[in-house]
Amino acid sequence: MKYRIKTDNLIKLIIIILGACLLAFSVFFIINVSVNHLTNEKSFINIGYNPTGVKSLDKKVKQLINKEKKAFLDSVNKPSNSSCERCNFVLDEDIHKYQGIYYVQIHISRFFDDDSSDKKTYTYIYDSKKDRFITLSDILVEDSGFEKFSLIIKHYLRKYAVDNKITIDDKLLTENSYNNYYLSSRGITILFLPHESFNNSDNVIEITIPWEKTNEFIKTKYQSKELQLKKSSITRMERDLTSFNGQKLVAFTFDDGPNEKTTKILLDNLSKYDAKVTFFVLGSRVDKNKEILKRAYMEGNDIGSHTFNHKELTTLKDPIIKKEIDDTNNKIEHILGVEPIYIRPPYGSINSHIKSMNTMHTICWNVDSIDWKTKNRKKIKQEIIKNVRDGSIVLVHDIYEESVYGALLAMNELKQKGYSFVTITEMAKLKNIVLDYDKTYYGF
Ligand code: ZN
After folding, report:
1. What is the pairing mode between strands 181-184 and 132-133?
2. Residue 328 Cα, ligand 1 centroid: separation in angstroms?
3. Residue 255 alpha carbon to ligand 1 centre in Å
4. How far apart (Å, rounded) are the C-alpha atoms in residues 52 and 64?
5. Helices 401-416 & 377-387, crossing angle to 10 degrees?
6. Chain segment 97-142, per-residue pLDDT in tens
């Protein structure tokens, strides 16, 4: 009898366990199905959004998700869609975060039974330090920031077009074309979505402007802290330009250096004339003259590239041109922490193809001191004085002692005639010129 009772209990226990299992399975099944087949079991909904943890941003994205989901369900619940069995709603995200700036892009793809489908993209850019959504204009400097930004983007797009053998009509770009951007350790990346403005392809076109190139147009607080740390090892003098306003200006430029002896003579004397100048250095000479290059830069002069081996670029094949430019930029960046933004092509020989291969401004000259020919300081001085005017760019070579003294003599005389001596950067600023990558500058 006792055993019988026990057996009964055992059977009951088994029934209870089986019941519980069945219930658990049903609950699991119902929950699972309800996630995927909401309301009418016609539609498959897949939402892949990982909240960022930033309240207002996540709230905004959730509102969007709910709105889009509801619109989708409403459309599949219509009587006309009664056969809707394979309708899908797929949502996923791309998130980038850098220095407190979040970039959230939401992609929504919808598929219907009649094989039709559509895609939508929403972008949110959020400054978590200021706790607000931002646009491009929030990160650009107020004064001509957009103009400079747009020029560099167009230049990079042309480079992209050359690299990828496609044509891009940048006339289709408007201010709204730049609203898809994110910041990363690499720089600022602009995305051109498929079938938007000039982008006829099915692919996203991404252009990244390295931080080094953004100084001129991105507000300091949005600049890369890593880059600022790197740069802070070299402190550079920057002078107040207000006293130069309305004055006659000359940009002296010195090519083919640096040279341990003659460049030093020049640097030792520039302060007498309150002069800052621009050096177009050869990559092949940089390593031997690191200290003088650093000194020239720290004292507020501009450092540009004159390529590595002084070859005529227009006679070279693309890979060699690229090497001539890149090797020089890398050497200079290694020493100064910044890449040069100006290039002076040897012999002034340049074309639009070479311009599209680099991301520097092309600077030539309109006053040639012909110092290499006369090799005489007085003649060099006279040649400069004879041709100089407001906005001139003067070509001298700081590898000859006579040239350096000739330039200094000219400065002495020009100073008395009311001229001031500025770098290319200072000249462009004072003349209110936003440098264009397509142009070659001979003077201002
Ligand atoms: Zn040269």
Report:
1. unpaired
2. 14
3. 5
4. 15
5. 40
6. 999 999 999 999 998 877 888 999 999 999 998 889 999 999 999 8
Report how far ligand 1's centroid is from the alpha carbon of 270 (Å).
21
Report the candidate in 357, 424, 404, 376 with the shortest Cα–Cα distance to residue 256.
404
Show the tokens assigned to 267. 């640097």
Q: Ligand 1 centre and the CA of 66: distance in Å? A: 64
Q: What type of residue sits at position 177?
A: S
pLDDT tens column, 277-297: 999 999 999 999 999 999 999
Length in residues, the chain: 444
Q: What percent of the chain has pLDDT over 90?
A: 64
How remote is the CA of residue 257 from the centroid of ligand 1, in Å? 9
Give the global pTM. 0.72
CA of 304 to the centre of ligand 1 (A): 12
Give the separation between CA 238 and CA 248, rounded to whole angstroms. Answer: 20
Q: How far is the CA of 367 from the centre of ligand 1 (A)?
A: 14
- Cβ within 8 Å of residue 15, ≥6 positions away: none
- 164-178, 227-241, 302-316: which range is least confident on average? 227-241
Surrounding residues of ion ligand 1, Cβ less than 5 A: 255-256
The three-point CA angle 412-418-422 to 5° equals 75
